[in-house]
Structures are given as C-alpha cells and as structure tokens.
Amino acid sequence: MKIWKGFPLQRRSWLPKNYSMKTKRIIDRLQAFWFAPAPAERLAILRIGTGGFALWYLLSRFSMLRRMARGGEAHFEAIGLVAELGGPIPPLAFDAVLYILIGLNLLYILGWKFKYIGPLFATLLLLFLTYRNSWAMIYHNRNALVLQVLIIGWTTAADAFSLDALRSRTLKGIHWRYGLPIKLICVATVCTYFVSGVAKVAGDLSWEWATGEALRSQVAVDAIRKVLLGGELEPVFMWIYPYTWVFMVMGITTLILELGAPFALWKKRLTWVWVVLTWLMHWGIFFVMGIRFRYQMTGLIFLAFFDTEKVWFGLKQWYSKNVQRSNRTLSSY
Description:
Layout: H1 21-34, E1 38-39, H2 40-60, H3 62-68, H4 91-110, H5 114-132, H6 143-153, H7 163-168, E2 174-175, H8 176-202, H9 213-228, H10 235-240, H11 244-259, H12 268-289, H13 294-297, H14 309-331
Antiparallel strand pairs: 1-2
Helix pairs in contact: 2-4, 2-6, 2-8, 4-5, 5-6, 6-8, 8-11
C-alpha cells in the first residue's frame, strides 16, 4: 500500500539479510498494531475533546485556582517538575500563567499554528497541573488528561477540523501518522488503570481488596471523614454497607478491570466490554463515595478506542441527504 511508503518498519535494512519468517511475522504484527492507518478526523476529534475538557476545567475552577495561589506557603509543597521551586510563585504571576494557558487552550481546540501551539499548550498544562497538585493534596484524576494532551500536542492533530486545515485546503486522508498517536493514547490509558491495580495489590491491603472487607473499611473511613468535615453520607453507601458480598464483588471487579486493562487492546469486542464496565465503575464510585472522576465519567478518556469520525461522517451524510430532499421538494413547485 502507498500509505506505508517511507514507514520505518517497512524499510528493513537494519535487519540481517536472511532474517527468519518468525521475525517477519513479529515485525508485521508490530506494524499492524502501532502503525495502523487512521483518518485525520479521528485524531482531530481527540484534540477537540481533550482541549474542550481542559478548557472547562480551567474556566469552571478559575476563581478557585486564583484563591489557591494566594493560600500561603503553609499549604504549598512543590512536587514533580516544579519541585525546584523554593515556594509558591507570586499570585500575579500565577494569574498571568492562567490567562496564557486559557488562551493557548482555545488555540489548541481551534487548531491554529498547531505545530507550535500544540507542544506549548501540552507542556504548560503539565507544569500548571503539577503546580496545582503542589497545593494541599495531590489529585491524580487529571493524569490521564495530561498524558493524552501531551501525546496529541506533539502530533499533526490539526490536519482536520481546524484553522490550519482551512488554510491548507488539502485533504489529508488516512495515514499511519494519525494512527500512531491514537494507538499511543490507548496504550497510555490502559497503563494508567494497570498502574492503579498494581498499586492496590502492592499496598498494605494487598489482595485483601478482593475480600470486600478492606474495601468496605476504606469507603467507611472516607464517609466518616466527609461527615466530620460537614458533608453528608451517600445514600447508596448506607444501603449497601451491611452487605460485605457487595463490596467483594466491587473489589474483584475493580481488580479485574484495572489489572486486565491491557487486554482491552487485544480485540475490539474486549475493548467495548472493558470500556463500558470501566465507565460504569467510575459512576459506581460516584454513587457510593461521591467522588467525581469527571473526565472518566463523561467517557472522553475512552474516545481513542473508537472510530469516532464515523459519527461525523454519518451526520454529514444525513445532512446532505436532507438538503437534497428539500431541494427536490422545492424544485417540484
């Protein structure tokens, strides 16, 4: 196929001249997995989806973030990439960074000068959310969003549905350079769940997670903490608390979905099952514990696993048919 011309694994000059058929099959499988061609529209939808959620986060928490930056050094402990900071940056400097980040976020969604805006926004978002996690406590529920933006920001994700695409006026079609970052996003996503599962079994509770008792105790401690801080108990938790077997089912299901996440990359049917069950798991966490993993609950985290562009093409075709039907009706008068 012409689409593979120039593809790194297609040029096998780096291999011995008489490599075995087994080696060839391995290379072909790697090629089929990592470099499967995809349409530019699919990667563009991921750009818009991740950018849209990031923009919602920044705008909905705009006032809170500004108050946080003025919270004083007692609540600040630099972590990760900002660990070298001796203390919090001046509030006015933080405000400037926040405004710049929102502006870059808008340009990221619109796909303007994406060759420069994409990497810049992805890097600044990583630094910003790392800085945000340096205050009070570490929030891990945005890690998947940051990972996906980091991947998308360094790709040609503005070749469709963007201002750059309008300026070029050339159809980009289907290519492996769109498929590779999508596959990388899928791998990064399942890895976040797998790491969560490993953290559970490697922790103090270990495999007791599967018995139900440990999970029920953990949820109960979280509920008590909320009550002491002036919150309310979740009605679902009060209803299921007496039944240990319910927590056992929840614990086993959680471990299966997290430790078994990599198998979601194996077959499309497994992908559907894993995505639906994992999405329901996050909604279950919300109803039982009141904890919102919004990026996961909206399903945006799973967009890369599906051919989302087919929805766009379907709507476009439906619209064209309706316009043609209306024109025929008008011409008949």
